[in-house]
Amino acid sequence: MAGLRCLGMPSKCVMRMRSDLYTLSKTQIGPVLCDYVYWVLQEARRQEVSTLYFLARDGYVLQRIAREICMTEKISIECRYLYCSRASLRMPSYHLIGEEAYDLLFQGGYHVSIHSFFERAMIEEKYWETILEQCGITRNIDLDRELQQSELKKYRKLFMQSETFSSLLRGNSQNAYENTIGYFTQEGLFRQKHIGIVDSGWIGSMQRSLRQLLESKGYRGKLTGFYFGMYTAGKEPADGEYFSWYFSKKQGKKNKILFCNNLFECILSAPHGMTIGYKKEKCVYKPVLREAPKSEQMEEIQTQILGLLDGAKIRIKNGMTVRRSNSEKTLHHLMGHPEKEIVKIYGRFLFCDDITEDYHYPLADDAQDALNGYIVWNRFIRRIFSISTKKLSRELFWPYGTVAFVKSPIKRAWYWVNIYLWEWVKFALK
Fold first, then answer.
1. 3-state SS, one letter per residue, for 119-152
2. Of 186-190, 379-383, 405-409, minimum mean pLDDT range
3. What is the 3 state secondary structure string of the chain?
4. Torsions phi, psi for 322 (to 5 deg)
């Protein structure tokens, strides 16, 4: 997810935008994150959680804010940082969860291809041809062709027929399991009677994977997640409790309509790469990370983190009185009604929704060709007739952000209303 598209820009422009990013982070976003983290700490005390694990990478700046609050407010909760990702938690669990592993491996996304399936299963290229033959897939097929949602079930069924794919997946999962459990043991998870985890949120899949892994090794304690927002209620009660601050499945409809979780994840960028697994060096278990963002990208991320922390410190110094209405006002404007200059700042972030991080696209830009695909009528037609979005337009990571680039006020209002209306109907039906 982390990354910024600032290469090739004049240095004065980069410096100005970096300054704007710092100011925006300090004055607007820092206080919002501070309020959220303070709520987490209050809820954790009510739930009698003594240790909170902030999940990488979204938890990086949140943990630093939490430690600042605990020190100032004299809150005796240990705030730890747990290196993990969807990929690092799913891989060691695949051999434990039966067909659910295939549900995860063949999930949809912004850019899913046959290549994605191999990457998600971490299967080396030398085995691809054998697997494709066992699946009855022609050799000259384009492995990078973007698949329609309707094709995912088809390929799930075909790959399940491949003994090589199943065998390699099981082997990769079993090989990753021991080091993963070793890292969890080292970080004290098995010593906790009540584990509290903190993350941005959305569907709770990381909490479920964590529960499955801990339970497989005999853990019988309690697991509770504290999230900024949750679109679902969790898959099953066994996964533990889910507490959310800004919105949940049943509450905060307007907050969900005007929210962009992709933007929020960019705001929570960490100064290190994604966790792809764990390794043991002598007697210490360490996370294996993807390459960190490039130097210019890293400078942007560090600038944002500095702004967020400075804003949070001011909030803490002035006294902690959490009012979610203040955060709602800030985020409704920033995410749902952004000015063009704000979108230019955040639009440079590169984003990927897939667990492999095998591709990255700008969060938002001025290419407005895709907006016609967000007209309610067009979306309704696609939904009824199962037409691929990609046949009509590309998917947008921050639709309200792209709308901000439309010059005509009338057209801008038209696109905005269509996006809002679709989101309203979607969450009203849910």
1. HHCCCCHHHHHHHHHHHCCCCCCCCCCCCCHHHH
2. 379-383
3. CCCECCCCCCHHHHHHHHHHHHHHHHHHHHHHHHHHHHHHHHHHHHCCCCEEEEECCCHHHHHHHHHHHHHHHCCCCEEEEECCCHHHHHHHHHHHCCCHHHHHHCCCCCCCCHHHHHHHCCCCHHHHHHHHHHHCCCCCCCCCCCCCHHHHHHHHHHHHCCHHHHHHHHHHHHHHHHHHHHHHHHCCHHHCCEEEEEEEEECCHHHHHHHHHHHHCCCCCEEEEEEEEECCCCCCHHHCEEEEEEECCCCCHHHHHCCCHHHHHHHCCCCCCCEEEEEEECCEEEEEECCCCCHHHHHHHHHHHHHHHHHHHHHHHCCCCCCHHHHHHHHHHHHHCCCHHHHHHHHCEEECCCCCCCCCEECCCCCHHHHHHHCHHHHHHHHHHCCCHHHHCCCCCCHHHHHCCCCCHHHHHHHHHHHHHHHHHHHHHC
4. -75, 120
Contact 73, 320 (CB under 8 A): yes
pTM of this structure: 0.92
Residues 6+ apart with CB under 8 A from 324: 35, 245, 246
Distance CA 381, CA 354 (A): 27
Output phi, psi for 278, to 5 deg.
-140, 155
Q: Of 47, 1, 15, give the one whose Cα is nearest residue 296.
A: 15
The answer to whether the CB of 208 falls within 8 A of the CB of 239 is yes
Q: Which residue has the tokens 């980069």?
A: 14
In contact, 112 and 146? CB cutoff 8 Å: yes
- The string of pLDDT tens digits covering residues 34-75 is 999 999 999 999 999 999 999 999 999 999 999 999 999 999
Taking the alpha carbons at both ends of the chain, their separation in whole angstroms is 28
